[in-house]
Write a structure and sequence with these properties.
By secondary structure, this protein is an alpha/beta fold. The protein has nine helices and ten strands. The chain has one domain: 3-Layer(aba) Sandwich (Rossmann fold). Helix 7 links the parallel strand 8 and strand 9. GO terms for molecular function: palmitoyl-(protein) hydrolase activity.
């Protein structure tokens, strides 16, 4: 009862209530550990990290990593700092040698990079792309508390970190997002960086769903519906018709309001957490990246 009173009454702020209901950070399933300095280094510090240093990924049992040490060695991790002062954990997964595209992936709720690492390897291998991802403030190795304002700052910090590593995006980058990753922060990235799409080779967005929290409270919280009309890059929207968490109508509404939407994929019978198990999911992603995004370069 005391928790309910604190949630809804102290203070009666709709945005805080929505944030508590929207964000479900799990117990961290990994750690990002700075590597020791090489023997003979003249540095005064005993550990190196930060922008110029190297970091090591330590996966906990809860990460349930499904691959071998060989694949684990192809995962690079580091931390960067957001404009709001939070330390943001980042992960780069080399899935395919010589991949032309890198997918900037904003993952869903209630997971972190450790839990997603196996999924990234499988996805990147199947769509012939490498994967770059990050954890939201308060998730995994990222510090701070989850909030909409931090989401905007997190995606921007991840993008800035990726763009300073041109070897990771030889042809370009597209943004893929799931559930929580599809709201304000992903919309913010597309809007705030729309002028860079041409110059920095950013090609488009993959937007599997919307989020209905803004329908519950009189506040513009994570309101993708109102922002998507301003996106100027190609957008692929994928949604399961039997989604029990986010109603299928939200996917339809996004498609109707997005001026740059390509042919969507409505996966008949798919729910909220099983859409990647359907063969048409991967087939549509491959077409979007290899054909529709590639045509933007010409």
């Amino acid at each position: 009862i005391s928790q309910l009173c604190c949630l809804f009454c102290c203070p009666p702020c709709p945005s805080r209530i929505a944030a508590k209901l929207a964000f479900l950070p799990p117990e961290p399933t990994y750690a990002v550990v700075p590597e020791p300095e090489p023997v003979g280094s003249t540095s005064t510090g005993s550990l190196r990290g930060g922008a110029a240093g190297r970091w090591k990924l330590h996966l906990k049992d809860r990460a349930d990593f499904q691959y071998s040490q060989r694949e684990l060695d192809n995962i690079e991790v580091f931390v960067t700092k957001s404009s709001r002062g939070n330390r943001i954990g980042c992960m780069y997964v080399r899935c395919v040698p010589g991949a032309r595209y890198t997918v900037l992936f904003s993952h869903g709720n209630a997971v972190d990079l450790g839990q997603m690492s196996s999924f990234y390897i499988g996805l990147g291998t199947r769509i012939n792309c490498n994967i770059f991802s990050y954890d939201y403030s308060g998730y995994g190795a990222s510090t701070g508390k989850p909030s909409e304002r931090n989401l905007y700052s997190d995606i921007d910090a991840a993008w800035q970190a990726l763009r300073t590593r041109p070897a990771w995006v030889p042809w370009g980058c597209c943004h893929c997002c799931l559930a929580l990753g599809c709201h304000a922060e992903s919309i913010s990235w597309c809007l705030s960086l729309r002028g860079c799409f041409r110059g920095q080779k950013e090609q488009g967005c993959l937007d599997p769903c919307a989020y209905p929290v803004s329908r519950l409270f009189p506040t513009p919280f994570l309101d993708s519906i109102e922002k998507i009309s301003k996106i100027t890059s190609p957008v692929l929207i994928i949604h399961g018709t039997e989604d029990e968490v986010i109603d299928f109508s939200h996917g339809l509404a996004l498609f109707e309001r997005c001026p740059k939407a390509v042919e969507p994929l409505w996966v008949d019978g798919a729910g909220h957490n099983d859409i990647e198990l359907y063969s048409q999911y991967l087939e549509r992603l491959r077409k979007f990246i290899s054909q529709e995004l590639a045509s933007q370069r010409n």
